Amino acid sequence: MTVEVDRERCAGTGGCVFAAPGVFDQNPEDGRVVVLDPEPGPALRDEVREAAEVCPVQAIRLSA
Ligand code: SF4
User: What residue ranges define each of the domains in the chain, with the CATH number in brackets?
Assistant: First the structure.
């Protein structure tokens, strides 16, 4: 799985960080999403999907 984010679109809600803290973080300066692990393994798949689902602005894009 590959994770891409649109930092311009990100609203800084932190939902993705809460759902998948090993994969997402927030930049301390602007609060926008930072991807810690752009290719998370199978064990993280469910939480990464959850992160994408809770994002209110659809800033997270996943590909297989
Ligand atoms: S859930 Fe979406 S809007 Fe919120 S911090 Fe993550 S990418 Fe940004």
Answer: 2-63 (3.30.70.20)
